[in-house]
Design brief:
With about 190 residues, the protein is an alpha/beta fold. The protein is about 40% helix and about 20% strand. The protein is built from six helices and eight strands. Helix 1 packs across helix 6. It starts with a strand and ends with a helix.
């Protein structure tokens, strides 16, 4: 029973990440490739800046917020990171959330939904691949890149175009396949 976790990276007031995350959450639930979809909003998760005294690879967590985050990540079979681009890179909150843990991420695929201006967040998406592959995650090739994201917002909701819908389906199809292929590695 595969589980998909969608992580909304942006936490700032007035953020676009929330409606983008809600849109991809609805698309993923309709897609049907995963039995469960967990929408994680880092603004609600409210992880402090890394405050664990031990290296994450030891899994000797001292704080309840880390233990809860660990269990949530551990239970997922695949991820989608919904992320903005800040100054040609990804935002600090997603890096902090990733860095809290280590082994929980291993052998799980990740799809990237990026957004921004003319670059559609693609520079942030490229940069985060260096981080996730170090944790033995597999970024899938298919992605959703939303340029000039404000044009797709109507009354606080995303009104996706055909390219976004097609890209989302392709990414979710790939996540389903890669998640199944990596499953034996997650069990070892």
């Amino acid at each position: 029973m595969p589980k998909l976790s969608i992580v909304i990276a942006s936490t700032r007031p007035g953020r676009v990440g929330l409606p983008v995350g809600q849109w991809i959450d609805a698309v993923a639930r309709e897609h049907g490739g995963f039995d469960e979809v967990d929408l994680v909003d880092l603004a609600e998760l409210d992880l402090p800046f890394m405050d664990e005294p031990n290296h994450p690879r030891l899994r000797q967590y001292t704080h309840d917020h880390t233990k809860r985050w660990s269990a949530r990540v551990e239970s997922a079979d695949a991820f989608v990171f919904v992320m903005p681009e800040y100054n040609y890179g990804y935002n600090a909150e997603i890096k902090n959330a990733i860095d809290y843990l280590c082994l929980e991420w291993a052998y799980k695929p990740v799809g990237l939904v990026s957004y921004g201006g003319v670059s559609a967040g693609t520079r942030a998406a490229q940069m985060i691949k260096q981080v996730v592959t170090t944790l033995k995650m597999t970024p899938v090739f298919e992605a959703v890149s939303i340029p000039f994201v404000q044009q797709f917002l109507k009354d606080g909701r995303v009104e996706a175009n055909d390219v976004m819908e097609t890209s989302a389906k392709a990414m979710l199809d790939e996540l389903t396949q890669v998640s199944a292929a990596l499953r034996p590695l997650r069990r070892s």
